[in-house]
């Protein structure tokens, strides 16, 4: 069973963004599986790096859409993304210097943040973007 399961309740109604969210879920699940399997610190570190890189890619896509279409919530949304990246970078540094205990804490943070962000903040922009023709 996956650590976090994608379901329709997380859909923002925009296929490209939903697909990117699914990818984030998959990377978090990969991290969880690697931890359960006792994979090496190097493997866990690579998955954490992949997550960080993909989050930057995904956030950039969302932010470009919001900025280009003049979404009024752009600034606060971007600020949430920026705080997330800072937190993940902190976890990366702590993980490099420490152990999987950090990864366990990170997993809980990622799960909580992703559910809250997608179901809250992201769902606020979706009606606006859809009204501008983004599908």
Distance between the termini: 30 Å
Radius of gyration using CA atoms only: 15 Å
Order of secondary-structure elements: HHHH
| Number of helical regions | 4
Unreliable segments (pLDDT under 50, ≥5 consecutive)?
none
Strand residue content: under 5%
CATH class of the domain at 38-131: Mainly Alpha
How confident overall, as mean pLDDT?
92
Number of distinct beta strands: 0
Write down the CATH topology of the domain at 38-131: Four Helix Bundle (Hemerythrin (Met), subunit A)
Helix share bin: over 70%
Features:
135 residues, mainly alpha, Four Helix Bundle (Hemerythrin (Met), subunit A), 4 helices, elongated
Describe this structure in words.
With about 140 residues, this protein is mainly alpha-helical. The chain has a domain at about 40-130: Hemerythrin-like (Four Helix Bundle (Hemerythrin (Met), subunit A), Up-down Bundle), CATH 1.20.120. Helix content is about 80%, strand content about 0%. It has four helices and no strands. The protein has helices spanning about 15-35, 40-70, 75-95, 100-130. The two termini are about 30 Å apart.
Please render the helix and strand layout as text.
Layout: H1 15-36, H2 41-68, H3 74-97, H4 100-131
Summarize the structure.
This protein has a domain at 38-131: Hemerythrin-like (Four Helix Bundle (Hemerythrin (Met), subunit A)). 79% of the residues lie in helices and 0% in strands.
């Amino acid at each position: 069973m996956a650590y976090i399961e994608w379901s329709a309740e997380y859909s923002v109604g925009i296929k490209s963004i939903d697909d990117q969210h699914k990818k984030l879920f998959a990377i978090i699940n990969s991290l969880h599986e690697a931890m359960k399997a006792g994979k090496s610190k190097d493997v866990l570190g690579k998955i954490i790096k992949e997550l960080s890189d993909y989050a930057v890619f995904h956030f950039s896509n969302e932010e470009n859409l919001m900025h280009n279409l003049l979404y009024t919530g752009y600034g606060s949304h971007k600020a949430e993304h920026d705080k997330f990246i800072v937190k993940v970078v902190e976890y990366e540094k702590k993980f490099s210097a420490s152990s999987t205990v950090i990864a366990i804490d990170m997993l809980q943070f990622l799960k909580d943040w992703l559910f809250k962000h997608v179901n809250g903040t992201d769902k606020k922009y979706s009606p606006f973007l859809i009204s501008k023709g983004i599908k």
